[in-house]
Amino acid sequence: MARNSFSRISDYLCEEILMYLPPEDKIRLEFVSQQFKRTIFRRQYRFVIAPSCNEWSKVKNVLLKRFVGDFNVIHKIDIQLFDKILSKFRYIDDFAIHYNLDTSNMDEIFECLMRHCIRIRRMDANFFNVSEKTLDAFGKRFGHSLRVVKSSIVSNTKIPNSFALLRHCSNLVSLNGSEFLNEKLWNNVFNTMLENDYTNEEDIGEDDEAEAVMQDCNEFCLEKENFNEVVLPNLKSCYLKVTNEEGVNHLEKFSDVFMNRLEKIKVELVDYIARHHYMVNFIFPLGICKFRNLRECILTLKYNGGYDADFLWINNGLNGIAQDCTKIQHLGIDFIGHQDFFINHVLQALTCFKTLPHLSISISMYNKGLNFPVMPSLNQLDLAYPRLYQCTHLKQLVYSFPNIIVLRLHRMYFFNDVLLNSLIGLKKLQTLRVGGLCPPDVSTIGLKTFLNAAQQIRSIGFDTRPKIDTKTFEMIIDFVQKHENIYYDFDFCLEDFDPNEKKEFEQFFNKVQLPKNLSIK
């Protein structure tokens, strides 16, 4: 019995095996043995309470107390039970709460994290209703280890005391959440930089000298590349929201301080263009163009009308980004509620990017007359377009983007074999991902024609199951066996089939041995 006992397995191997257990099973199995109790929680690094997460399903249901609030049903975390569970998972470094929560006990939640956790690298929670004292203590405790801070819950009525936390996060790389980027926060960041760099030299209490410092501040920021005392010196990714004139000033100050640091930025110009056209013309060249090391830029635009002369900011702005941000690799534009002529102006302005490898376009309305520009440098295209089922629009992709290697189509309204036949002209296409609002009606014959014509295709995936049967897989196996030196990856969402079809597929795969160079999900 000693020879076959579990004690002969090392703690390291126990950690590797037991790390795949669900959290609720880990809590239940800690009483098996001392070895289990010693190793079972050590490899649990994430604590996620979210409606779409199955990992913490049972724990989530126990933790959350559901009750009816003022407007809708909200949830509240049981602090005592949360504290007991967190005392076991002391090694988590990724914490997230995505629920509609009552935020009255957020201070207690943060105190539990400080009491039990060793370090936290990623934080995603609602920072509203957290006192400045608690945020300051949390920053002192985990500021050196925090790399990503994100907030998924946006409030238009309250501004958190984010600076109390962020001033301690010297190693923060990514900051995501529009509520962090408010006037109070960035004024604190900006003033802290000025105090660290100027107040030690001489007394600047007089009014004229203080005004001179503020006037020369922008020139000082442009000349000095490395600040030793800048708040968030390692920030690489950030999310901004420009909805009023103050937002323009925030972006201007932010770009002065982080012009040589930021590599990824997301800017929302929501419901702002129609009211202040001159300000939008000011935002692009003097705001985004200052980020010289920018690799990724995502823009969200909302247009409610205007004159043709107002489109001048599009050409000037995108042209300025293309010229000044020469390192940019990914440009994304999300159109909200636009008409064809406005989107076409933006699309034609994209030709100023001569070496852009990755482009993302998202269109929310049913537009019919869009014209995509010719961009031979493009290698990857992410396109969300509800009316792209039309053959003429699909053919535009072949003519406009002939060198595409990766193509991802999202929010498609309807699909049939026209989709695959229209993309045959993309000679260099290797990866295709299709995401539609309804299942794609792709037949076995249409898929076979596409595979035989698309010489470079390596991977195809659908987010909803296409109309296929076992004959489709027989055709794929025959096709793959003719190309032994190429690895293929196909995803047909087989888990979405009904029980009878799923049983038929299981019987088929039990009888047939897949080639080594084929993977079917």
UniProtKB/TrEMBL annotation:
This is F-box domain-containing protein. Gene3D superfamilies: Ribonuclease Inhibitor.
